[in-house]
Design a protein that fits this description.
Blueprint lengths: L1 E5 L6 E5 L22 E6 L6 E2 L3 E2 L10 E6 L3 E8 L11 E7 L13 E8 L3 E8 L4 E7 L1 E2 L13 E6 L10 E7 L2 E6 L8 E7 L3 E2 L1 E8 L1
Parallel strand pairs: 1-9, 5-6, 10-18
Antiparallel strand pairs: 2-7, 3-4, 3-8, 6-7, 8-9, 11-15, 12-17, 13-16, 14-15, 16-18
């Protein structure tokens, strides 16, 4: 499961989906608690030398963060959904992505009960938005974006020295094959790109102008 969270966020509650590996219907797995036999949780921040264990603890109440707290949402009406209180180090600045992985829960007979639960987090800038649906490694046209005036914060129909770049996953920003920026009015613009501009999982676009705030948005591509 993929989610986006602003960099440096604290007291984050992550919604987790866990499937029952003993059935073929895709049902969620109810009944897990923080100390279920075999259940482990680790996270890995982009660029780190190793994964880090999260020692799960009770979460007293849904919606209320506790460090490493783990709690089922509703076993009757939402079986398989859990909340996890992420340690603040997980979303600290300094990484672009974080993987959180839960696995290994056993039932009372000592048999593997849960399917692995991989969760990928995109750590975004505070003014960055995440979208999905763009086809990976396929040229695109008329990708829309907006520009806002740096002083009034209103949509800016006439940005000065407008430029747009893209970054593929954790790479560097560059113009790449972006071209044909069009002003369609009222502070809304479009841009075209080639297949190489979307040859990754997370494509971050940054539009700048001397009289505007930067516009930053990230697209989660689909295979």
């Amino acid at each position: 499961m993929k989610q986006s969270i602003p960099k440096g966020s604290t007291n984050v509650l992550l919604d987790i989906w866990i499937s029952d590996c003993t059935v073929t219907t895709g049902e969620g797995l109810p009944g897990l608690v923080y100390n279920t036999t075999g259940l482990t949780c680790y996270y890995y921040r982009e660029g780190a030398g190793a994964a880090v264990a999260i020692t799960l603890a009770p979460l007293t109440a849904l919606g209320t963060w506790e460090d490493s707290g783990f709690k089922e949402v509703n076993p009757t009406y939402m079986p398989g959904w859990y909340q996890l209180g992420l340690p603040d180090a997980v979303c600290a600045d300094g990484a672009r992505t974080v993987k959180v992985h839960l696995r290994g829960a056993l039932n009372s007979l000592g048999q593997l009960w849960m399917a692995p639960s991989p969760n990928e987090i995109l750590l975004t800038a505070n003014n960055e938005q995440l979208y999905s649906g763009m086809k990976r490694n396929k040229a695109f046209t008329d990708l829309p974006f907006i520009m806002r005036n740096a002083l009034t914060k209103a949509l800016e129909p006439s940005p000065t020295s407008l430029a747009i770049q893209r970054k593929i996953d954790s790479g560097s920003f560059g113009v790449g094959g972006l071209t044909n920026v069009q002003n369609i009015g009222s502070g809304v613009f479009t841009v075209d790109g080639v297949a190489a501009d979307v040859n990754g999982t997370f494509i971050t676009f940054k539009a700048t102008a001397s009289n505007c705030d930067p516009t930053i948005f990230t697209v989660l591509t689909i295979p």
